[in-house]
Amino acid sequence: MKKLLAFDLDDTLAITKSPISDHMSETLGKILEEFDVCVISGGAFEQIRQQVVDRLHVEPRKLSRLHIMPTCGTQYYRFDELDEEWRQQYAANLTDEQKERTYRVLEASARELGLWPESPAGDVIEDRGPQITFSALGQKALPEDKYAWDPDGAKKLAIRDLAAPDLPDLEVRVGGTTSVDVTQVGVDKAFGMQKLIDELDISKEDILFFGDKLYEGGNDYPVKEMGIDCLDVSKWEDTVNRLETILAVIK
């Protein structure tokens, strides 16, 4: 039996940039009785906290089984039961020079392709510490606008392909619904999963990962490539249905 269930966030646990539903919250509460749980997302810690952690109505004992990995696993947070606080375990931060260069390259690439927004909803390029994220419509764009912008992923891939050669020392990858992420080379969701394996003294075989971008080039693909068992989902309802099946089988 698996020991840990790991999840992407947007379009796996919730609608993009939205809180998890009551149904998902209740189901994850039950899952935390049986498994450790990891949420690994391109979003910052506060984003994951708002979307997931603050929606879980569980006691501290269960929160201690929850592992939060923001910015595609470049950071790791655990809950301290004694102080009832979230503590950062590590962060693979970019240097100031790398950040400045990444800002310039991402903006130039988007403008060259005609994909730089003139009236964005929030920041277009965000410094998340270990990760710089380009959001094509702005961080606060409505979910329906995000889903309509690049349904086949071609626009994000075009920005990624144009920017990557100018950032040869960094990893440039397609991120969420409208985003492109830049991190240190080799620091991706597989990096985060390996850190978790080492921290918990478990093996790849002990983990089941849920994600919506498990295709080659997607930001969940590194987890699949490292040999962890994965379930491909396309919306949070797929995930909750599979979790309910797991709970029914183990009871």
Task: Give an overview in words.
By secondary structure, this protein is of the alpha/beta class. The chain folds into two domains: 4-92 and 187-250, Rossmann fold (3-Layer(aba) Sandwich), CATH 3.40.50; 96-184, Eukaryotic phosphomannomutase, cap domain (Hypothetical Protein, Haloacid Dehalogenase-like Hydrolase, Chain: A, domain 2, 2-Layer Sandwich). 36% of the residues lie in helices and 21% in strands. The chain has helices spanning 22-34, 45-51, 60-63, 96-112, 143-149, 154-163, 189-200, 221-225, 236-250; strands spanning 4-7, 36-40, 66-69, 75-80, 85-91, 125-127, 132-135, 170-174, 179-184, 207-211, 229-232. The strands form two sheets. It has a seven-stranded mixed β-sheet, sandwiched between helices. It has a four-stranded antiparallel β-sheet with strand order 6-7-9-8, with helices on one face.
Index terms:
four-stranded antiparallel β-sheet, Rossmann fold, single chain, 2 domains, 251 residues, seven-stranded mixed β-sheet, Hypothetical Protein, Haloacid Dehalogenase-like Hydrolase, Chain: A, domain 2
Structure summarized in a few sentences:
By secondary structure, the protein is an alpha/beta fold. Helix content is 36%, strand content 21%. It is globular and about 55 Å long.
Helix-strand layout with pairing:
Blueprint lengths: L3 E4 L14 H13 L1 E5 L4 H7 L8 H4 L2 E4 L5 E6 L4 E7 L4 H17 L12 E3 L4 E4 L7 H7 L4 H10 L6 E5 L4 E6 L4 H12 L6 E5 L9 H5 L3 E4 L3 H15 L1
Parallel strand pairs: 1-2, 1-10, 2-3, 10-11
Antiparallel strand pairs: 3-4, 4-5, 6-7, 7-9, 8-9
